[in-house]
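In this notebook, the sequence line spells out the residues, with the fold written below as integer tokens. This is how one looks.
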Amino acid sequence: DALETEPKSFIFMSEDALVNPDKLLVLIHGNGVVRAGQWARRLIINEDLDSGTQIPYIKRAIEEGYGVIVLNPNENYIEVEKTKAQIQLSSDISDEPAEKRERKDKIQKETKKRRDFYEKYRNPQKEKETMQIYIRDNGSPEEHAIYVWDHFISQSAAENVFFVAHSYGGLAFVELMIQREAEVKNRVTAVALTDSVHNVWHQEVGKTIREWMRENCCNWVSSSEPLDTSVESMLPDCPRVSAGTERHELTSWKSFPSVFKFFSEAVKAKNSLVKPTPTRRSNRIKYEEF
């Protein structure tokens, strides 16, 4: 729905993503410099494409009859060269009182802060001053997830929608649940988080969402324990199990076979009205509701 003159983002979809009547897999990477289809650039550069990209997930999903949508949550703005007038205006604005500066758009400010560390490495020798023009309804990973849900995922034909969300992608999914709770519960069959950084208290997640997450989500976290071993948590949300690695960036790759097994069990459980058990041990914490 973008105009020709405004900034645009993109996502990747398989040909059957919106028409597959059975299963749809949605992939969300973490925050930082990674872009659509990547888990970690460090792994891509130093190890291999299997561990560092979403290619294995995409191939496996297609083999098993899923449609696939790959989100692009870090593509939030474009950079354009400032005119002389804009450079002068920026200089004038820097002298504004603190109270006035604090009224600037919160989402853009927080997104810029998260990126400052990474962006200086993208083009450290650039000589021209640039400005960021944010993409409408995609100014943050959270906004992007909601936009793609509203315009694509919710319009798909799939009876069973699945998410794999890594790191900050897990936080974006939880925010999606907060904003579209009824729709997500109605369409999503299971969610695999990999070392997610979401926090149900900081994000003010309601009781009904926490209960749904305990039944339909599993978080594969970095741990020295063997793959799929239950890991205790102080937070009352989805079960946590070991990803079989202590390296955060490897959790999506190491948990890869378990994730698809979890999804298969979720479909069977949905059809038989019995929930899946994603862990080896059943010694989960029983949380007290507040």
The chain has two domains: 12-74+138-272, 78-134. Residues 280-290 have pLDDT under 50 and may be disordered. The first strand starts at residue 12 and ends at 13. The CA atoms of residues 125 and 167 lie 30 Å apart.
